[in-house]
Structures are given as C-alpha cells and as structure tokens.
Amino acid sequence: MNKNKEQLLNKRYKAEQRFRLYGLSAIFMALLFLTIFIFKIFSTGYSAFQKTWLIVPVTFDAELMMLDQNPSKEDLQDADYYDIALKSMADLDPNANEDQENELKRMVSYFFEKEIKNKLLNDPNLIGKTKEVYLTASDDLDQVFKGNYPRDLPEDQRRVSDYQLKIFDQLVANGKVESKFNISFFTNADSREAELAGIASSFMGSIFSILVCLMIAFPVAVLAAIYLEEFAPKNRFTDFIEVNINNLAAVPSIVFGLLGLGVLLAIFHLPRSTPLVGGITLSLMTLPTIIIAARASLKAVPPSIREAALAIGASRMQTTMHHTVPLSMPGTLSGTIIGLAQALGETAPLILIGMVAFVNTIPGSPMDPAASLPVQIYIWAESAERGFVEKVSACIMVLLGFLIIMNLFAQIIRHKFEKKWS
Amino acid sequence: MIKIKAKDVDVFYGKKQALFNITLDIEENQVTALIGPSGCGKSTFLRCLNRMNDVIDICSVKGEILINDFNINDKSCDVVRLREKIGMVFQKPNPFPKTLYENVSYGPTIHGMAQSKQEMDEIVETSLKKAALWEEVKDRLHEPGTGLSGGQQQRLCIARAISVRPEVILMDEPCSALDPIATAQIEELIDELKKEHTIIIVTHSMAQAARVSQNTGFFHLGQLIEHGSTDKIFKNPDNKKTQDYITGRFG
User: How many domains does chain A have?
Assistant: First the structure.
C-alpha cells in the first residue's frame, strides 16, 4: 500500500518535470527561430544603410555647359550638365574607346548629372575650375564594394564588365571610393534603380493609411463596443451580432481588399492607390479587433463600480461615460494599437486596391498615390536587381522597428494607466 | 411614522420566483434589519427599494412599494431621482478608483447640489465628518480612495452615499468584509446616522441585527416569515422557524 503511494508520488514529480522540460524547450525553440530570423534580416539588411560614392574630378567647363560670361542663377539652372558629366566619367580612363566610355558612364547612377548640377548650384564659383564631386555608384558597384557581388562569375553572366571592375579597383586603390550613411534611403521615393530607391513614399503611405484607419476604426469600434456591452439588451439579435463580429475578425484580409476594390473604387470612385482607400479598407479589418478589445476591457471593469455610480443616482449614460469608459480606456487603447500594428503589416488588401503601383513621388496627403511599407517589401522582393536584396531586409527592419515601438507604446499605456481595484 | 410600505411584492428572476408576497412597513429614522439564511431573498428585497434590480435584465418586480406614499414601481417614477433619495452601501467596499474628494463629490456634482467650489468643499467635509472619516483623511483628500483600509473604504462609501442627503440608506451586509474593529466603527456610525436617515440593513450576523436595529424582518425561502420590533423577534418570536433560526438551529 505504502509502496504504491510512493510510486504515485514519484510519477507525479516526474510528470511535472517532464512538463517543465516541454515548456522550456518550446520557449527555446521560439527564441531560436526568432534569433535566426532577426539575424538573417540584420545581416542582409544592415549594408543598405550604407551607400557607396565614387569621388570623380569634374571640370566645370563653361563652354561645354553653354554658359555665358556672368551667368545668373536661372542660367545655372538651365545649363547643360550632361556633357561635362559624361566627360568627367570618360576622363577616368584617358585611353577609353567609345564603348568603354559608355561603360564608364554606367558606373554611376543616372542621377549623376543632377549631382553635378547641385554641386555647382551650391557653389557657383566653381565655373572654370576642376573639383572632386561625390557621385552615387551604380547599384552593382555598390554591391561590389560591399563584397556582395560574385566577381568570379564568367563575364557574360555578370552585369558588371571586367573593364568596369578594373577601373573601379583602381579608384578603390586611390581612395576615390567612399561609403557613407545612406540618407537617400529615407528621403527618396521608390525608384527602378536600386541605388536611388528609398522608403519615403511607402513610409508616408503607411503613416497616412494608419491615421485614416485609426480615425475611422477607433470611434466606430469604441461606440459599438460601448453600446453592445453597456446598453444593448441581451437577446438573440445581439448574440447574432456578437458572433458575426467574431467572425469578421477571422475573415482573411484579402477579402477586405476585394471589398475595398469592389465598393470604394468601383462604386464610390475614390482615388485609386491612395492611403485614403487603403486606410478605409484596413479600418474594416481593424474594426472587429478593436471592438473585441474594447468589450473585453469594458467587461473587466468590476460591476461594483457601475452599481456604485447607479446607486448614487447616476444615469446609465453618466455611469458609462464617467466611470466605465474611462476605466476601460487603457485596455481599449492598447487593443487599438495592437490592431493598428496588425493593419500596418497588412499587404494583401493594399495590393488589391492598387497601392502596389510604382510610386516615385512622396505623398503629401492621404489623397495622393502612395505605397506602404509591407507592399514596398513585396515590390522590392520581386525585383531582379541584386541591389534590392539588402533593401528588402532594410525595409523589413524599418517596419519591425515601427511595430516594436507601437507595441511598446501599448504596453506602456496598459501598465501606466491601468487602475488597481481595491 | 411609516417611511416605506411594501405591499405584495413579488420578484422573479426569469421564471424563478425569488420573493413571494412581501408586505412590510419600515419606520422612519429607525434601523430595520433584514435577516435570514443565504439566498432567502433579503438582498433582493433591499435592491427593490432603489430599483437596483432594473440593472438585471431578467429580473422583474411586481407589487407596490410606496415611499412617502409614492409608488416607486410606477412608470412615472424617475430612477435617478429615486436613487438620489435612497442611497445604498454595498457588501464589498466599492469606492471609485479616484481621489477621496472625487468619490464624495461625485453625487452632489451630478445632481447639481453645489453652486461653488466652496459649497462642494463643505458638502465633502460634512459628509466625511458624518461618516466619521474626516479626522483620518482630511490631509489626503486628493489621494486615491482605493488606498484606504477596508473599514475606511466602507466609511468612504457611506460618506459618498450620504453626500446627496438621502432620506433612506440601504446597507447590504456592509460589514461582512470587515474586521471586528472596523465593524464596531460602522455600527456606531449607523446608530448616529439613524437620527437623520431611515436605515435598512441586511445582515448575516444576528448579533449585529440585535445590536443596531430597532425592527427586524426574518426572511426564509423568499417569504417574509415574521417582522416586528427587534426585541420581540429575538426574545419572543411568534413563528417556530424564526425561533429556530435565531437560536442557530439552522441557517
């Protein structure tokens, strides 16, 4: 008898130990995956925050630029920079033939003419002089400099020719190649050229979409939650609504995208590809999430508080607005932020309403065409150029950073403003 | 003087009847205790008196309850006005998670009882004084009410209830969550409050009923078995069941 009891006890201890082990290994697995994921993203993406520049001497030849003796500001604006830009690249190799000159030109971004122009506009005294100018290296050379380029492939399988590599190596040896923080990644809109592509358009697009989403979803969801939780009679009809709200939360986001396409664009003719439409579509998706969070936090307010207010003669409305709703706000707000964070990472519905279009301008309002961060990731991940690989990871890093900040904010709100009940 | 007259009050929770034919008169400026075993309907009856049962969807009340000869179950009765006149203190102290001052001033604010900050200060002070809490908290009126001890919280709830100068105060087992010292303080307070208010208290403690009340009603299984002066109920009850309950044979 006694022995039997001891065996049972041992069994129980063992079972508990096993259970702990399962738990620990589950946590370990989760952390492992997370670490691998983050490590992969960071190791691929960090180089996108650096940009490679070629330092090229440019001779600001007034004749080649078609400038008169004392040019005005407007003259400088309208001057022809293409020839001096071409010449300065060709001068990198005095013995170059015509084909090679073309190759030399392709070592920098097509933006090089503008970069030279800006240099002169900043300092008009440079006319007639020779000055070293920083020119954005082409995306392939950028990758070469970062060590990401397979130089040992046969030449016909590379976009960078042996000749370009030779000149580039000379420049590197002479210290004429420099790597600097990639500001344009944050200030430029999307571009077909990897070295010029930035996230400004998609970042602003995401911000506008989220704002539109917040302004629609939050008030509607909170009012719905308050009505359902505090005022609605409990009957079949409200049960039906409740079930459907829960169903709505489980609807795949692409369905909302179709709804946005079919209703907002086709019937209401709202401007396509804009954060306005994106935000409205996302708000449909966020709505059930916020309603559920708000109802849960309204439910969490102890009934004794409602009774206390009612018993002193507060009306139902006063009880709700003075006590229940303020007390439920921390939970509602953190639920809202989590809902918005979900919306921020949403891609499918935005693709359907056209926010996947190539947008090379930065939107100034929710009515302007824009991309959004997750869609930008999708667009870049589709691109063939090697230069976009690191951009994808960098964009993911920005999005993740955004999400972490939002979730952190939700946590802070919850901890700081949550009341402790007696 | 009779303050409240209940006539043939029936209460149903859905199909289940919780109170049967309760007829009871409550004397003004006295303490009436409602006693009985758990689930006998005494709290339900108490909540009929300020229509707190309205909050429960499935609950329906039949019969007449006259307060100052006005039937509060009548359609024309405004619950907000009614609850202004009939305050309530609950079993578990339930101060708002706000400051002490806000707890007491909330009622007067929503009923527009103070014209100025000064008047409000006065109301808060007198209410807290009447609830015998003023001396303990006068230096921390702007600290959260939930930071007080259990007994203090309950007195804060009493202060909150009397801040709107109700004619009747309903108390639903106000001491069941308190220690003996806090209980003694509350009982002393009840004795003081009955000078200005009519008090109805539900209690599980027969000793408490005997100590604080002048009248007692004994409930059992939804029926009012017997009521009368506390002296009589405790010393010489008419009904056998009352006798058994008082002497602790069941309950």
Answer: 2
For A199, the token pair is 């996230």
Residue A339 vs residues A111, A169, A218, A246: alpha-carbon distances, Å: 40, 51, 10, 14
Kindly identify which residue of chain A lies nearest to residue B96, measuring between CA atoms. A305
Within-domain flag for A379: yes
Q: Which of A310, A322, A422 sits opposite B153 (nearest CB)?
A: A422
Rounded Cα–Cα distance for residues A123 and A101 (Å): 28
In this structure, what DSSP letter does residue A421 have?
P
Rg of the Cα trace of chain A?
30
CB B33 within 8 A of CB B175: no
Rounded CA-CA distance B33/B209 in Å is 6
CATH number of B2-95+166-246: 3.40.50.300
Query: Which residues 156-175 of B are in CB contact (within 8 Å) with A?
Result: 157, 160-161, 163-164
In A231-274, where does DSSP find H-type helix?
Answer: 236-249, 253-259
Reported residue count of chain B is: 251
CB atoms within 10 A of CB A219: 11
The ipTM estimated for the assembled molecules is 0.91
Domain definitions of chain B by residue range: 2-95+166-246
A311 occurs within a structural domain: yes
Which carries the bigger pLDDT value, residue A187 or residue A70? A187
Please write the tens of the pLDDT for every residue from A252-269.
999 999 999 999 999 999
Question: What phi-psi label fits residue A273: left (phi over 0), alpha (psi between -120 and 50 degrees) or beta?
Answer: left
> Comparing B156 with A64, which gets the higher pLDDT?
B156
A294: enclosing H helix or E strand: helix A275-299
Q: How far is B134 from chain A (nearest CA, A)?
A: 20
The Cα A229–Cα B57 span in angstroms is: 13
Strands B70-71 and B59-67: antiparallel
DSSP A137: B
Q: Which domain holds residue A175?
A: 47-182
Specify whether A78 is located in the same domain as A223: no
Residue A230 lies in a domain: yes
A209 and A168, same structural domain?
no
Residue range B154-184, pLDDT digits in tens = 999 999 999 999 999 999 999 988 889 889 9
Here the CATH number for the domain that contains residue A246 is: 1.10.3720.10
Token digits for B20?
């049967």
Which of these, A385, A379, A390, lies nearest to A138 by C-alpha position? A385
C-beta of residue A260 within 8 angstroms of C-beta of residue A192: no
Residues A233, B57: C-beta atoms closer than 8 Å: yes
Give all strands of the β-sheet with A50-59 in edge-to-edge order: A130-136, A50-59, A177-181
